[in-house]
Amino acid sequence: MADVEYQVDDRVALITLNRPDVYNALTAAMGGAVNQALRRADADPGVRCVVITGAGRGFCAGADVSLFTDDAALLKDSDPDEGLRPELLMRLRKPVVAAVNGSAAGVGFVLMACADVRFVAEKATLTTSYARLGVSAEYGIGWLLPRLIGLPNALDLLLSAGKISGAEALRLGLAQRALPAPEVLPAALDYARALASG
C-alpha cells in the first residue's frame, strides 16, 4: 500500500512508513502492511537484513488518534491481520535496524524499541506517551523497556511519559548511534549492508 513502502537493494529490505504529513501516524491498515512487509522480508532468501524508517521529518507519531472510536462492534469485526504486531521485529530470523529519523511516540516508540539495533536522530523527540493519554503501556513495552535500559529508567519513561532526545537515548543505551537527522538513514543502510554481506 502507498502508506508503507517496501524495497530491496543489496540484500537489505527497506520498510518506510509513508504518511509524512501526519508524522507517519499508524492506521490499522498500515500496521497490517508493516506486518506483511516484515513477513515478506523474513521469507525472502535474498534479504539478509531489514531497515525500518519513516518518511519526512518523523519516524512514527504513534497510532492515528483521529481514527479512535468507542464502537465495540468495529473491534469485534476487525481483521486480526490488521493492526501492527511489533513483536514480529523481534521474531524475525534476520536483523532489524530502526532508522529513527525523527519523533517516535507511543506505538512508534515500541516499534523502535523492538528493533535489534537503533540509529536515532540526535534531536529526535522520543516518548512512550501512554501515561499522558491515560492508557496502559501496550505491545509489551512494559516488559521490554526494562530489559533495554534498566528498571528505574524504564519506569521513569513509562510513568511520566517524559520526552527524551536521541542523544539521551544513546546515553541510556536505548540507541546505538545518535546522528544528525539527515545522516540517520544512510548510516543505518550502510550498517545493514555490512551485516548483509558478512
- N-to-C CA distance: 32 Å
The major beta sheet can be summarized as: 6 strands, mixed
What's the CATH first level?
A: Alpha Beta
Average pLDDT value?
Answer: 89
CATH topology group? 2-enoyl-CoA Hydratase, Chain A, domain 1
Query: Radius of gyration, Cα only, in angstroms?
Result: 16 Å
Q: At CATH's second level, what is the architecture?
A: Alpha-Beta Complex
Order of strands side by side in the largest beta sheet? 1-2-3-5-7-10
User: Uncertain regions: pLDDT < 50 for 5+ in a row?
Assistant: 71-78
Total beta strands = 10
Structural class category? alpha/beta
Write the H/E string, N to C: EEHEEHHEEHEEHHHEHEH
Q: Helicity level, as a percent range? A: 40-55%
CATH superfamily: 2-enoyl-CoA Hydratase, Chain A, domain 1
Outline: globular
Strand content: 15-25%
Domain count:
1
Q: Please, how many helices?
A: 9
Question: In summary, what is this structure?
Answer:
The chain has 198 residues and is of the alpha/beta class. It is 41% helix and 22% strand.
